[in-house]
Each structure stands twice: as structure tokens, then as C-alpha cells.
Amino acid sequence: MKNILIIDDDIHIGNVLEEALTKEGYGVFRAYSGTEALFVLAGGKTDLVLLDLMLPGLNGEEILPRIKGIPVIVVSAKVGVEDKVDLLLGGAVDYVTKPFHTKELLARIAVHLRNAANTPISPSLVFGDIILNMDTHSVAVDKAGVKLTRTEYAILKMLMQNQTQVVTKSLLLDRISEDTPDCTESSLKMHISNLRKKLREVTGKDYIEAVWGIGFKMRAE
Questions:
Q1: 3-class DSSP state of 55
Q2: Mean pLDDT of 2-18
Q3: Distance, CA of 7 to CA of 37 (rounded, Å)
Q4: What CA–CA distance (Å, rounded) separates 151 from 182?
Q5: Nearest-10 Cα torsion for 82, 88, 93, 96
Q6: 3-class DSSP state of 201
Q7: What class is the 3-117 domain?
């Protein structure tokens, strides 16, 4: 089942979209603000995003560049050509103007999901001079291989997949459990400490930072 995230603070429009998508067999997630959308996207289970522009907090234009590797269809009342051009150049795969015809939107969704399925996904994640290869489960820092445990690799992968935001401890534990079962809340701090040390030994840089009381994130250069 393909999962679609609706980012729109208009409850009525969101309900209409959710009903239509559910009937087509899609799984549906909802987010009513830009900040909430980032938390949903951190779950890594979204196949396509329907993005409104007028959102509380972070608006659609601010959210768009933070969505990586997922097709985004902008659904907005803005009709200006310049708006459409800027957003398409900024990473959106399509632009649908409100009010929209549900059948047309569903057809566009089907096309972009099909295109995404036929587009090879890079097996590597990159952050500064760190390269993580998801095919070989290998990590290199400044071209030097770094040997990580299964748990350390899972933690680093999760942080690099969400490198522009803080990943909460609970979300980190929940997601990495899919790759490794031996990390618990009590041992997470130790695993991250060991990971930071191994990465730091190569270049002297600290790549991961703790955000007190919340979780961890990749350290901005």
C-alpha cells in the first residue's frame, strides 16, 4: 500500500482528500502545520506528499526544500505563473490549483507514484564528508572506512535521513528497532557516544549533537 501525506490546515479539504484517497486504496497521513509535517515525514513511511502553501508556523515554501526523495504535489489557491514556476523549480513534481477536480488529482497522483517507482533511488546518504551506503551497510568519513556495529549504523542512518531536524529519542528507538533489536532507552546514550567517538577519530569533527531533553541531530557545519 502506498502512503500519502496530506499537509493542509483546512480540515474540510483534508477530509475530502482523505476520503477519496482511502477509496483508491491509499494509506493516508494528516498534518495540519509545517512543524507537524516534519515529524510525520521523520517516520519515513510516506510515498507522496500533497502540500498546501498557507500553513501555520512553517509555510509550504519553507517545507518543500526539506522534503527529500519523495514526490510533492503542491495543492494551492495561488494561481500566479511565477508561483508555479518557483515551486516546480524548487522541487515540486506538480502543481494543482484549488478548487480542483478529484479525478484529475487522483490521476496525477497515480502518475507520479509510478514515475517514482521507476526512478532509481541513490543507495547512499551524504552529510558533509560522511557517506553511508545503504546497499553495502558501509560508512566512510573523509573516504576512510569506519566500522560500526549494527546499532550504530542504524542510528546514523536514521539521523542522516533526517539531517535537518532533531530526531526525538522515542522516534529514534522506534525506527531503529526495525534494523536492530538490541538498543533500549537505557543503552541509547552509550551507543550514540560510541558512534560519535568513531566518527570523530577520523577528522576530529563532532558530527552528532544532543538537543537537551529532546533527542539528537546531525551537527550543522
A1: coil
A2: 95
A3: 6
A4: 7
A5: -10
A6: helix
A7: alpha beta
Res 79: pLDDT: 65
Tell me the pTM: 0.58
Rounded CA-CA distance 210/214 in Å is 8
Residue 87 is predicted with a pLDDT of 83
Task: State yes or no: pLDDT of 3 exceeds 90.
Answer: yes
CA pair distance 156, 176, nearest whole angstrom: 10
The single-letter DSSP state of residue 94 is E
The domain limits of the chain are: 3-117, 124-218
Pick the CATH number of 124-218 from 3.40.50.12370, 1.10.10.10, 3.90.550.10, 3.30.300.30: 1.10.10.10
Which burial class, exposed, middle or buried, applies to 214 when counting CB atoms under 10 A from its CB (0-12, 13-18, 19+)? exposed
Backbone φ/ψ region at 131: left (φ over 0), alpha (ψ -120 to 50), beta: beta
The alpha carbon dihedral of 189, 195, 198, 202 has a sign of negative
Q: Cα separation of 40 and 46, whole Å?
A: 8
114-160 pLDDT per residue, tens: 888 776 556 788 898 999 987 788 999 998 999 998 889 989 988 98
Whether 195 shows a pLDDT value over 90: the answer reads yes
CA distance linking residue 160 with residue 122, whole number of Å: 14
Grid cell locating 7: 499537509
